[in-house]
Design goal:
It is found in: Membrane. With 141 residues, this protein is mainly alpha-helical. 74% of the residues lie in helices and 0% in strands.
Amino acid sequence: MTAITASHGTSTRAVAYWVTTGLLAAELIVGGIWDILRIPLVRDVVVHLGYPTYLLVILGTWKILGGAAILAPGYPVLKEWAYAGAFFVFSGAVVSHLTTGKDLQELGVLAVALILVVASWALRPGSRRVSGNAGRSVSGP
């Protein structure tokens, strides 16, 4: 592989990472703000699914913090937790819609959000990944 090809592949991956990450972070942060404000669109879906509206404030806070963690430099372990949380939020929403049979038109948006979570996580550069020793006990088994 030539240097030009390697550079092009790296830059394409970096662009794909930042596009998916930017869209994911925007969804998390804007969605989190909407949740905290309990805008009618979001509140109506949550009530229709049978959840209490106070859950929106909790989820909204977590979404905003997760979006900020994914965008911030450093803290790779925190990023892993943020990606996991985003995956749990969006996959849980898919399951909620499927099991209740309500608001199924939302599934497309939720599927896109899940794809963004997985794509951003898979495309993240080495500097945003947990190293092989992270999370292991220093003192041994």
